[in-house]
Design brief:
three-stranded mixed beta sheet; 13 strands; 16% strand; 39% helix
């Protein structure tokens, strides 16, 4: 089988007919070498400094400082001195790890503190919080244990890969992104066919940065006796009157059946959480394989996360600075005629369409000292490739201006603006 490297994507190598695992690895290695040779391999670059608006990137004595838009450290808390100090104090008191799963000896007082803090953040009780090692497993592990072959997951087509993985044991239907009519049609036809009907959406979507119509979706879900799960990893700490995410302003924080999120973005650490009613939370703790067979958050992470959550209220200036940066940067891109879609968050895409031109834009940005992510199929549709950027509170005006100037120069050469 011949694969045309000039049009291939990562997905083309998942399962090649007649190729065993080593043969697939061999041809994939050839593809990566092809990508490197034409300057379009922008993935797994080595960072030599911590998350920040300026990062040193490279290896083998060839390094360079870049203005970075690749991390979701939206408020800069990975480098906040109070968060670092709290993490160090956690290590000093408890050491570096748990050495056991939470079910059989690996549940510590700092886990209890973290559950209290994240649940209180959403106006809930400690019994309603379950914490996981990552945000990915918070989704996948929870869905795998809640939904079986008698049930159905109804997914917005733009939800995260962790949600799709979590639904491998159950029935699944998807509806076009944020399409209320399509969602209602699936709810109608599914109403009496399945034991559990769970609609899963994001609050803020990771590729387009747009927000779900959560009020309307909540009403639809309840009209048809279903449940609603909202993954708000890109909304919490950023959106909402006090940073509680996309559910805060509509008054839905205490009404949504399941809220999931991560500690790896706004809270600047590692881990995930599920917020739900106390009975369901207890069921997840004792039935989820990842809770039973996997160690969870180490002490340094847990104590650092607690401080980061507290800082959302203690230091609101970081969220204010973030929104100042978001509005300035998006306006600059829009004024050039670049397509930023419907974003209304810290995730700002520049939609280009052609994956190869997108790769060229990524290369040209790197040459100009701008580190941003080219996103192509299968992360987005084949004709919807884009440069995705995460704006942070630590970006200075000069960083944003340099990036806008780079896009202006690239647009003159490649004509990527909307027609």
């Amino acid at each position: 089988m011949n694969i045309n490297f000039s049009t291939a994507t990562f997905k083309d190598f998942e399962n090649i007919p007649g190729f065993d695992m080593m043969e697939r690895a061999d041809i994939y290695s050839e593809f990566l070498n092809y990508m490197k040779s034409n300057g379009r391999h922008h993935y797994r670059l080595q960072n030599n400094t911590g998350c920040s608006s300026i990062m040193n990137v490279g290896s083998e004595n060839v390094t360079k400082e870049f203005i970075s838009f690749v991390t979701s450290d939206y408020l800069g808390f990975t480098q906040h001195p109070k968060v670092k100090q709290a993490a160090m104090e956690g290590i000093e008191k408890f050491g570096t790890g748990t050495a056991a799963t939470p079910l059989i000896g690996g549940y510590y007082s700092y886990h209890n503190d973290l559950e209290n803090t994240i649940s209180s953040f959403f106006g809930r009780t400690r019994d309603e919080a379950v914490i996981f090692t990552t945000g990915y497993t918070a989704n996948s592990a929870t869905l795998q244990i809640l939904l079986q072959k008698e049930d159905i997951a109804i997914l917005d087509m733009a939800v995260h890969a962790s949600v799709h993985e979590g639904c491998i044991l159950t029935n699944r239907k998807t509806f076009p992104h944020n399409n209320l009519d399509a969602l209602e049609q699936i709810l109608k036809t599914s109403e009496n066919q399945y034991r559990t009907k769970l609609v899963v959406i994001d609050g803020v979507y990771s590729q387009d940065g747009d927000v779900a119509p959560v009020e309307e979706m909540y009403k639809l879900v309840k009209k048809y006796n279903a449940y609603l799960m909202v993954d708000d990893v890109h909304g919490v700490g950023i959106v909402g009157k006090t940073g509680r995410g996309t559910l805060e302003d509509p008054g839905l924080l205490d009404k949504i059946d399941i809220i999931t999120g991560t500690f790896s973005k706004t809270f600047g650490n590692l881990g995930g959480y599920v917020i739900t009613n106390a009975r369901l939370a207890e069921f997840i703790r004792f039935q989820s394989r990842q809770q039973i067979f996997s160690a969870t958050t180490p002490p340094g992470s847990a104590t650092g996360i607690v401080k980061a959550i507290e800082l959302i209220d203690e230091e609101p200036q970081w969220r204010a600075k973030l929104w100042e940066n978001i509005n300035y940067f998006k306006k600059g891109l829009d004024d050039m005629g670049l397509d930023t879609g419907t974003t209304c968050s810290a995730v700002i895409p520049v939609k280009i369409g052609d994956p190869h031109i997108t790769g060229d834009v990524g290369k040209m940005l790197l040459e100009r000292g701008i580190y941003a992510n080219p996103i192509i199929y299968p992360a987005v549709a084949r004709k919807n490739a884009r440069i995705r950027m995460s704006v942070t509170a630590t970006h200075e005006r000069e960083h944003l201006d340099k990036t806008l100037n780079a896009f202006e120069d690239i647009n003159k050469k490649l004509h990527i603006a909307k027609k």
